[in-house]
């Protein structure tokens, strides 16, 4: 049997007009608990990436994405599995992002984020944001 392919995970960088981006804290007991990430989650079978992004941000934050563009697809290897972190910048949404799953939420300008507090793959996303 062929080995399973990488896990396709959607991540949304919500960006406010003042340049701040939203990061959320990974809950206790989960992989990378206590580190910060961009909200999102696993793409479902047969789901197209934009639809998965919209669904995940609705489920986690209670918002409706209105405008987003793809930033990068980042292949990443953790010890137990491989990831494709499909990252979009979200520039317009309806509603106010809230912690629907009890997760910590913080807004920071990318320059103010501490890389070591982010999930390892997200440190590469941060470098892309800072370079843009
Ligand atoms: N959502 C999200 N996941 C990320 C990011 N960076 C990163 O390494 N990951 C990893 C953490 C998880 O191992 C994996 C899948 O994320 P997830 O949010 O669906 O996973 P989870 O552990 O909460 O699992 P589940 O309970 O939802 O099934 O991707 C990121 O910026 N956003």
UniProtKB/TrEMBL annotation:
Keywords: DNA damage, DNA repair, DNA replication, Hydrolase, Magnesium, Metal-binding, Mutator protein. Residues 4-131 form the Nudix hydrolase domain. Signal peptide: none annotated. InterPro entries: MutT-like, MutY_C, Nudix_hydrolase, NUDIX_hydrolase-like_dom_sf, NUDIX_hydrolase_CS, NUDIX_hydrolase_dom. SUPFAM superfamilies: Nudix. Its cofactor is Mg(2+). It comes from the Bacteria. It catalyses: 8-oxo-GTP + H2O = 8-oxo-GMP + diphosphate + H(+); 8-oxo-dGTP + H2O = 8-oxo-dGMP + diphosphate + H(+). PROSITE patterns: NUDIX, NUDIX_BOX. Its EC number is 3.6.1.55. It holds the Pfam family NUDIX_4. Gene3D superfamilies: Nucleoside Triphosphate Pyrophosphohydrolase (3.90.79.10). Belongs to the Nudix hydrolase family. PANTHER family: 8-OXO-DGTP DIPHOSPHATASE, NUDIX HYDROLASE FAMILY PROTEIN. This is 8-oxo-dGTP diphosphatase.
């Amino acid at each position: 049997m062929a080995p399973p392919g990488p896990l396709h995970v959607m991540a949304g960088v919500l960006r406010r007009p003042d340049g701040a981006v939203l990061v959320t804290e990974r809950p206790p007991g989960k992989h990378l608990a206590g580190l910060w990430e961009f909200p999102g989650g696993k793409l479902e079978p047969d789901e197209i990436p934009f639809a998965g992004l919209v669904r995940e941000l609705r489920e986690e934050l209670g918002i409706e994405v209105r405008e987003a563009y793809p930033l990068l697809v980042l292949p990443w290897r953790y010890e137990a599995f491989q990831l494709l972190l499909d990252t979009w910048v979200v520039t317009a949404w309806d509603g106010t992002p809230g912690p629907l799953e009890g997760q910590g939420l913080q807004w920071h300008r990318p320059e103010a984020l501490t890389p070591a507090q982010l999930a390892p793959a997200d440190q590469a996303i941060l470098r892309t944001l800072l370079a843009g």
